[in-house]
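[agent] plan:
  1. take the single chain provided in the ticket
  2. run structure prediction with default settings
  3. attach structure tokens to the ticket
  4. add a short note for the reviewer (M.T.)
[agent] executing step 1
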Amino acid sequence: MGAGKSIRPHPGGLGWWGLVSGSLVRRLLRRLHLEAEGDPVPGELRGWSYHSPPVRPRAYLGLGVSEVAYGAACGWREAWLRRRGVRPGKTPAMEAGAALHEAVHRAALDARVSLARGERPWSAAARLLSAAPRRLGGLPGWAVEVYRALVLSWLGEAAGHQLYYGGEGAGWLPWLSEYRVDGYPLGLSRALRVDALAEAGVVVEVKLGRPQWWHRLALAGYALALESMLEAPFDYGVLLAFTGGDGRPPRFLVEPVYISPGLREDFLAARDEAVDALLSGVEPEDRCPQRGEAGGGEAAWLGSST
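[agent] step 2 finished; step 3 output follows
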């Protein structure tokens, strides 16, 4: 990184869950509280400190969060070429990632809209599950199963709250998906899309395949952008990695992440290095000639243009 800064892998805990519910995510996040207490985020590393270094950018290039995170692992050649009109063609992995993001987005949206209209969760679940093949006809069968699993998970939790508490309460809300954020104050895109926000401001990043260390940088980037826009702290994130398909049941690998000072510094260092590389007239070297070396290669861009 610039000024001798080097990106370091950040450890994280992993848990396998077939269905993703609020209670399971909260259980995983509990292990992060001690880490946060022992390594609190100072004000100068919050997104609202965009008026001064290190949060203030060297230039305003409209960078994508995924672009920065991926570049930290594989260099800036792809980003450099993109800004000169060279764009890679779609691969099967990229198409699968887009289908995954669409399934998650549609599940969260449909569950949330059904509950907001006052529909009983069990009735909404029955209706959405039966209509899924028709409503998601353009998606592969495994993505329809992801949709069904998430709808059942979220609406099942909402049903439990109605049965036991007589109404909605904390922990029942489906996620806000494809949440738009203006990252301009940080030198990022004005049209960032956070994959999802869970309750209590937990940032969610959806990926295809096993999580990689640089995916955590993306969580830090989104947290900083949210803080700059909403003037509120975002300390926790979740990496949600899908495995399954091809006849296997949908499963998610959930990694809770404390968006620590070190993780924020690493994202900001990568952003500054990206600025230097993109303003240079020299084509950067590709640090990942074999795409698998970064743990996914083009999959960094799956379902997310920013």
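[agent] step 4 note for reviewer: The beta strands are 15-17, 176-181, 192-198, 202-208, 236-245, 248-258.
[agent] ticket updated
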